[in-house]
Design a protein that fits this description.
Helix content: 25-40%
CATH class of the largest domain: Alpha Beta
Strand order of the largest sheet: 1-2-5-9-10-13-14-15
Distance between the termini: 60 Å
CATH superfamily of the largest domain: Glycosidases
Length: 549
């Protein structure tokens, strides 16, 4: 039976690899605007859960829980915050139950960030409940917003005074990763505080006794074991650590209709398991749709985007010469062939200092007929763990927003980009500086309101016109800067920057015909094409022009 299971597994992996070899990214995600937030740092909707599991020790600056939770996200969905920003999907840091205690190897640090898993089958009490999660996803869908879940297979959280260690047949703590080759990226511990899952292994392992005791105390042991039996019987996968985790992750899709995964530390895990995760996620998504037909938004397939650190467009750092693969030094892996619809474009933080035209034209060439034709990327200017985040001092907020939100491909807003949230805090160190609490209080200032309005206009324009992210780019005029994007015959837009304030008479460069009714998303005005031009008066130097919808 063991041999038969391995044969079934081998065939499944080979079939899945072939299935995704010619994968193309769904059109929705090529143009999507994704809003990424640290759940704990976004909005505190329930102060009663701020110190769950007796998390009361005083942490190092910004290295403890600050109170943000699922109910806080619900509040912002309900009041239309994401809708006004033109957001297509929200992505939260992991919501699964974290280690309860703290690590003090680099200052007392709790698992506020969500990347120290303890139990993949439960929601962490600091973030809320499963009922809160179900409500959030359902509410997001009603507002035409998709939900991405941040998922981890690479590691567990550290052992603490309050938490048990995973068995040795599940994890390792050494050697530390050295990054020189494939093995030194995948079969190693990322940090002394993390225990690395033995994802290379197909050896069957038993569940940790203390996890079983936890489930028993919570009254769900029999259910969890029964579901695992059903999963392994159906799939034929060996009961190895990585397959347990695949089952646990895809349950969130099957139960609540999660629309996609953002995969953490993807390059530190053997790529074949991502093929399996995608296949099982698609099945789970299909099951949820059958069971919850009234909650289904559309027919957009399940989406998977990966964090492959140092991969990016235009040969960024460890990107292979073919422009698609990640280069480990001794091996190259094309993650697009392993179920990924998109990869996070870590190169944008370096490209953002370039002129807008250089970014737009080169990205358009890559994504339209170039090395990434038909595939997706997700560009950003800031993140929770990238020390190279662009414009950390928030000195170029308007220009930065223009470059990001009008970049070809999908884009990611990091919470607070749209409010110029400070990326530095007194006495904080390392990545904690990039994880300050959302600066809602700054919305009383007119300058912050102006920045937010700028992001909102760009976001709504992008959301209304697929050609912004998916269309072919062409410059039409250098000064003022004017360009067009065309998405086949389906959609087209004209964008200008650097116009004079007041009256404007602008050629539409034969992109639109006389009599076409157009809309400027920046000044919120409707205009008509007359003699190949449009005329309007506004106090703005930007023009975001498309057919009225």
């Amino acid at each position: 039976m063991r041999f038969q299971n391995l044969i079934i597994l081998f065939i499944a992996v080979i079939f899945s690899a072939n299935l995704y070899a010619e994968q193309t990214t769904p059109e929705f995600w090529k143009n999507a605007t994704v809003y990424f937030m640290l759940t704990d740092r976004f909005n505190n909707g329930d102060t009663t859960n701020d110190h769950s599991y007796n998390r009361t020790e005083k942490s190092a600056t910004l290295r403890g829980f600050e109170g943000g939770d699922i109910k806080g996200i619900i509040e912002k969905i309900e009041d239309g915050y994401f809708t006004r920003l033109g957001v297509d999907a929200i992505w939260m840091t992991p919501l699964i139950e974290q280690v309860h205690g703290y690590d003090d190897s680099s200052g007392l640090t709790y698992s506020y960030h969500g990347y120290w898993p303890k139990d993949w089958t439960a929601v962490d009490d600091n973030f809320g409940t499963e009922a809160d999660l179900q409500k959030m996803i359902s509410l997001a869908h009603k507002h035409n917003i998709k939900v991405l879940m941040d998922v981890i297979i690479n590691h567990t959280g550290p052992e603490t005074k309050s938490d048990w260690a995973w068995p040795k047949d599940w994890i390792r703590t050494t050697p530390l990763c050295k990054w020189n080759n494939y093995k030194e990226n995948t079969q190693c511990a990322l940090a002394t505080s993390l225990t690395d899952i033995k994802t290379e292994s197909d050896a069957e392992v038993k569940l940790p006794p203390k996890l079983l005791k936890k489930w028993q105390d919570e009254g769900r042991l029999e259910l969890e074991l029964s579901e695992l039996d059903t999963f392994f019987s159906r799939t034929g996968y060996p009961r190895a650590p990585k397959y347990y985790i695949v089952k646990w992750l895809t349950d969130w899709v099957k139960e609540y209709g999660v629309d996609g995964f953002r995969v953490d530390t993807a390059k530190h895990v053997e790529a074949d398991i991502w093929t399996v995760l995608k296949k099982e996620s698609e099945l789970a998504f299909s099951t949820w749709k059958k069971n919850s037909p009234k909650q289904v938004m559309d027919d957009v397939p399940f989406y998977m985007v990966g964090e492959v650190f140092n991969w990016g467009l235009n040969g960024y750092k460890n990107t292979a010469k073919n422009g698609r693969s990640y280069d480990y030094g001794d091996k190259q892996v094309d993650f697009f062939e392993h179920g990924f619809d998109a990869l996070i474009n870590m190169g944008f933080v370096a490209h953002a200092s370039q002129p807008a035209e250089q970014i737009f034209s080169s990205y358009s060439q890559s994504l339209n007929g170039g090395v990434l034709d038909g595939l997706g990327v997700l560009s950003y200017i800031g993140s929770h763990d990238d020390p190279d985040s662009y414009d950390i001092k928030r000195e170029k907020t308007f220009d930065t927003a223009f470059k990001l939100m009008l970049a070809p491909g999908g884009v990611q807003i990091y919470y607070g980009d749209e409010l110029a949230r400070p990326m530095h805090a007194k006495d904080a160190f390392g990545d904690a500086n990039m994880r300050t609490f959302m600066n809602w209080e700054d919305l009383t200032q007119s300058a912050t309101q102006d920045i937010l309005a700028h992001w909102q206009k760009l976001g709504k324009f992008r959301q209304a016109h697929d050609s912004v992210g998916s269309g072919k780019h062409k410059i039409l005029n250098k000064t003022p800067y004017i360009f067009k994007r065309e998405f086949g015959t389906q959609d087209k837009v004209l964008v200008a920057k650097g116009l004079s304030i007041g009256n404007k008479n602008i050629s539409v460069y034969k992109l639109f015909k006389n009599g076409d009714v157009l809309f400027d998303y920046y000044s919120n005005q409707e205009v008509i094409v007359i003699n190949g031009k449009i005329s309007l008066s506004s106090e703005f130097t930007y023009l975001l022009l498309g057919k009225a919808k």
